[in-house]
Amino acid sequence: MNRRLLTILLVAFLIASGCTFLVYRVVGNKAVAAKPIVTTPVVAAAADIKIGTLLTAANLTTMELKGTPPKGAILKPSDAIGRGVLADIYQGEPIIDSRLAPVGSGGGLAATIPQGMRACAVKVDQVVGVAGFVTPGMHVDVLVLGVPPGQQDPSEGTLTRTVLQNIAVLSAGTDIQKDAEGKPQQVQVVNLLVTPEDAQTLSLASNLKIQLVLRNPLDTKVEKVERTATGQLFGAPVAVKRTGTVVHKVAAPKVFTVQVINGTKSSQEKFSSPEAKQ
To answer: Which fold has domain 39-112?
Structure first.
């Protein structure tokens, strides 16, 4: 064999061996440097859990989570058993401590009430309850309709006023009550989450007709709404003149139209009443 060709083959073999060795070292180092995936066992829901449920061992299961578990995740079933659920939890979802009531507070609706707030029940019908669209988590305004005691202007008739705004709905369902004859009847009840002061207002409003008005949960602005009277709906248009905090209602002036005929030409002139000029 040609000596030159043999030298070339030997050099190529050495180069190939060196490249193979370098690739082996790089791949081997990466395999050694790669850390095993760490998993953490956490407590999760074995099935869908409704708000107010008192957790038992049958409601819970365990699952392995890769990486860092969520903040507040329950790691031991004993830390969740016997606590009430503050929000719906779905199957396979990790149990978070902030979504459970404190230890010893029990379950049911009472456990979902934040500290310093109250749940006030309002009896409504399907129309008042916004045709069934009032569900837990929604926000509503509360309107009352009635004739206030000592009303000085009988022509105003029934008045309506917004007494509460941006009130959260805690629960909505039905209750069994008895009518005047003692027969059971089903009525719709909505529990609203209010402050103690608003609970007093709502309690007084329960003696009148209540209307719930559904609002966008993202719209949290409280508007200044004037009361509305039945007389304003059917009466003549009025001009409202405001002076400080006192509102004076001025009747719209009467206007008289006179037709002027001059030969073949005809025109109309409008004149205000003398009372309007004053």
So the answer is: Type Iii Antifreeze Protein Isoform Hplc 12 (3.90.1210)
